[in-house]
Amino acid sequence: MSGFDAVVNFGRKATRRLQSAHKPLVRLMRQRARAQEHHGFREAADELDRAIARVASGRAPIIVGPWLAEVGYEVLYWIPFLRWFQDAHGVHRDRLVVVSRGGMETAYGELAGTYVDLFDLASPAELAARNAERRSLAEGGGQKQSGVSRYDEELIAAVQTRLGVGHSVNLHPSMMFGLFRHVWYGNLPFDVLWRHTRYAKAERPSSAAASAALDRVSLPSEFIAVKVYGGPALGTSETTKRAVADVVKRAASVAPVVLLETELGVDEHRDFELEALPGVISARSWMTPRTNLAVQIALIARSRFFLGTCGGLAWMAPFLGVPTVALYDADRLIAPHLFVSRLAGTRVNAADFTTIDLRALDRIAP
After folding, report:
1. Residues 156 and 180 in one domain
2. N or C: which end of the chain has fewer CB within 10 A?
3. Chain centroid to CA 63: how far?
4. How far is the C-alpha of 118 from the C-alpha of 331, rounded, in Å?
5. Does the pTM of the predicted model rise above 0.85?
6. For the domain that residue 253 is a member of, what is the CATH number?
7. pLDDT exceeds 60 at position 10
């Protein structure tokens, strides 16, 4: 080896050693940055806890909502969060004014001292347009409620006027989303979620409007409730549509299927077209905008089992004591919610919750 080659080799070894010595320092810096970031998440959660406690203090009416996001988040997180809020802060139900839509008072049960339905304040078209505007301006098109929008403020003012309430405080969904967002993203432990929720099996829902609607129709003595729609968990490709149709056909061979389709157009979810399948009955005409969710929940509660898209009312059905089969073909966005649903259901001995990944059916198809 020449002297020149020796010098070159020595230089390369020295460079590698310097680079190797640099790696632990980089790792340490990254670890410290991550720890600081997590500290910030915990501080933000603590501040939200203090804000929630301030809402609970005093005697003013508490407007709970308005709920403008997906029904899945409402039944899996918001209602259990409200149970915790009442228990943790000793808030009497008479102070609570729950604001949701579609007859959801049936899902809140004894939690709601007073209930105001958004469809008593706005038409479906107006609600859909204003909510779409809210999502576009404040949520990047998403469904969640990260803050109090202008439309939220208008609805709160309308509720105050409707009830003749001069002064009230607001328990807004953004408080819950703020607490749980970093749990879903993996930045905070799930203990944060469990400490701010109380899950419970629900009593059979009681809704005079839903009962009146169902008393006017010829409902099979035994049936399977089905609601399948496209969304983050279930695509709308032709392959998926065929797989869904096959599953619903198998269900209809067991018992008549009552299809919980609505076509209200208040969000981006669209029901699959399954009415033409044999053994399937559409419940569309049994509902109005004001009663649609109340009727759907009542039908689920009376059904042999519930079959639907993984999300939405599928999260609620097991807590009503109804065995549930949930369909999906993409689980990246629903993975944390699947975990919460399964564990919460196990803790309170809810009915069976079974999932079918349609991708598996496609792989083993002949």
Report:
1. yes
2. C
3. 20
4. 31
5. yes
6. 3.40.50.2000
7. no
Q: How many whole angstroms separate alpha carbon 135 and alpha carbon 297? A: 26
The CA–CA distances, whole Å, from 239 to 234, 305, 334, 360 equal 11, 25, 21, 12
Domain range for residue 130?
52-194
User: How many residues are given for the chain?
Assistant: 366
Number of domains in the chain: 2
Q: Which of 165, 194, 223 is the last residue of a domain?
A: 194
Residue 181 lies inside a defined structural domain of this protein = yes
* Strand ranges (E), 287-339: 306-309, 324-328
Give the whole-angstrom CA distance, residue 82 versus residue 53.
13
Mean pLDDT of the chain: 90
Q: Check whether 182 has a pLDDT greater than 70.
A: yes
Helical segments of 57-123, H only: 71-73, 79-89, 105-108
Handedness of CA 13, 15, 21, 27 (dihedral sign): negative
End-to-end CA distance of the chain: 66
Question: Stretch 66-90: mean pLDDT, rounded?
Answer: 97
Kindly state the DSSP code that residue 335 receives in the 8-state scheme. Answer: H
